[in-house]
Please model this.
Amino acid sequence: MLTGISAPTWLMAIAIGLAVVAIAVPLTASATMAAIGPVAVTALVGAGVPAPVAATAVLIFASTEGASPPSGAPIYVASGLAGVDPVKTFLPLLSYYCLPILGIGVLIAVGALPV
Model:
């Protein structure tokens, strides 16, 4: 699917980042990297990102695994300890954690942040 896409580097980085984050929701970072890591890195390299930078960006995308709603046991454990409805944590987790991590990975992939 990714081989047929001819897009600028920043758009490919966003697309790959969203795919990795979506896969990281139900999986651990290790399982995410095993499932999509090589394909994601290869796709970024094909878009012109140097291989070490592409690998770093994909690892950063996958790091959202433990706190990506609606999965992630830490969300439910922390909510239970705090006595908070876990559903109320979803929007803050997405806006304060997942989207910034996605942005950092994209900025690294396009060379705006150093590795």
About this structure: Residues 87-109 form the longest helix (23 residues). Residues 41 and 91 are 29 Å apart (CA to CA).
